[in-house]
Design goal:
The chain is an alpha/beta fold. The chain has one domain: Alkaline Phosphatase, subunit A. It has twelve helices and 14 strands. A ten-stranded mixed β-sheet has the order 5-6-4-3-7-1-8-13-2-14, sandwiched between helices. The chain has a two-stranded antiparallel ribbon with strand order 9-12. A two-stranded antiparallel sheet has the order 10-11. Helix 3 runs parallel beside helix 5 and helix 9 runs parallel beside helix 11. The longest helix is centred in the first third of the chain and has 27 residues. The termini are far apart. The relative contact order is 0.21.
């Protein structure tokens, strides 16, 4: 064999090995990664639902709850993503859920809410002032639905594409006067012993002596988390193989890029569900099911920038997470899935476009939030509670009712 032919043979073998390894990793994760580039127009990762009719309701009792929040996701964001992905006749996964509703989003002091007040409403069932997390306007901390579920004996989890200490996830596991207090929020999330925490925000867990730190003290929350029984991970590969009962996944110093090699939101959601279900099944302490909140954080960021392509991409990434939750719920039969938003961002409208979605004209009226109502979609046992038009504070109140939690909302002791 000549040297040139031998070289070609070796190269071909190397390519075959790479392809095989890629196939193995893809099969292991159960998720196809987007092309590892920062092209927001690439939505090839999205798989339109195979059906066009709503899923049936489930009559059994509620054991698990998965609450998915699309930050900044109004009705038009959902419509735009649907039209761009599959044309005017299709439906996103969230739109296939059998129960639909609308919620008001104003805060205690503003007609237009921010994510902190809206997150507190969705978590604690109370109105508060913009900027406040997990407490009433008089600074009285209130129990979140996650904390109430934990007190009931349920495993708990938070997943987001922002920092884990950002406004929405913070509202479910911390109580502070200002959303800007992310180092303190990170402390409380670990102190609350939430079983699964997947997001960005590693800088708020590192001591100030570390060049990447976002803290102003010497506390190393990574070490504190490990001492509290957490397995700490930082990569998608570690995510695939990790086991509970407590896992802290911090996949970026700040918010996620939402591109490979990071784990995608759907992959984090699927893994969080698997970990929590395993913990709730095998543990006497957490034997009463699980509560998981998943946030598609960066729909909001795209809409603040009036970035149409990224808005579509982030909404579809979120809808893939919805698919993961619904797939589990349909197989399990005891899981309530609720999909909603904290507020609308950008004042988005669609004044024109073709029926197939190739050309869509959009109009952004603001770079901030709006007072528009946002959608609610639900499936599973007691999902009928979530139809109609009501206030955002009623979302966790109705989840509490579905779980048999009677004293909610309530001040935190």
């Amino acid at each position: 064999m000549t040297k040139s032919r031998r070289a070609l043979t070796v190269a071909a073998a190397a390519v075959t090995i790479v392809v095989l390894l890629s196939s193995i990793l893809s099969a292991a994760s159960g998720v196809d990664y987007p092309n590892p580039k920062t092209d927001a127009n690439d939505i090839s990762f999205y798989r339109p639902p195979a059906r066009d009719r709503s899923y049936p309701a489930t009559p059994s009792r509620v054991r698990n709850v998965i609450l998915l929040i699309g930050d900044g996701m109004g009705l038009t964001q959902v419509t735009l993503a649907r039209v761009k992905a599959m044309g005017s006749e299709g439906k996103l996964n969230m739109q296939l859920l059998p129960v639909h509703g609308l919620i008001r989003t104003h805060s205690a002091d503003k007609l237009v809410t921010d994510s902190a007040a809206a997150g507190t409403a969705l978590a604690c069932g109370i109105k508060t002032k913009n900027g406040m997390i997990g407490m009433a306007p008089d600074e009285t901390p209130h129990c979140s639905i996650l904390e109430a579920a934990k007190d009931k004996g349920m495993a708990t989890g938070l997943v987001a594409t922002s920092t884990i200490s950002h406004a929405t996830p913070a509202s479910f596991g911390s109580h502070v006067k200002s959303r800007k207090m992310e180092p303190q929020i990170a402390e409380q999330l670990i102190g609350n012993r939430i079983n699964v925490l997947f997001a960005g925000g590693r800088k708020y867990f590192l001591p100030q002596s570390n060049a990447d730190s976002g803290r102003k003290d010497d506390r190393n929350l990574i070490i504190e988390a490990e001492e509290a029984g957490y397995t700490v991970i930082e990569t998608a590969n570690q995510l695939r193989w990790v086991h509970g009962p407590r896992v802290l996944g911090l996949f970026q110093l700040d918010g996620l890029t939402t591109f490979a090699p990071e784990p995608m939101l759907a992959e984090m959601t699927k893994k969080a569900i698997a970990l929590l279900d395993e913990t709730a099944t095998d543990s006497r302490k957490y034997g009463r099911g699980f509560f998981l909140m998943v946030e598609g954080s960066q729909i909001d960021w795209a809409c603040h920038a009036n970035d149409t392509a990224t808005c579509v991409r982030q909404t579809l990434l979120f809808d893939e997470a919805v698919r993961a939750a619904v797939d589990f719920a349909l197989a399990d039969g005891r899981t309530l899935v609720v999909v909603t938003a904290d507020h609308e961002t950008g004042g988005l409208t669609i004044p024109d476009g073709d029926l197939k979605g190739g050309q869509v004209k959009v109009h952004w009226s603001t770079k901030g939030h709006s007072a528009a109502p946002v959608p609610v979609y639900a499936i599973g046992p007691r999902s009928e509670l979530f139809g109609g038009v009501y206030d955002n504070t009623e979302v966790p109140q109705r989840i509490a009712a579905a779980l048999g939690i009677k004293a909610f909302p309530q001040a935190r002791k």
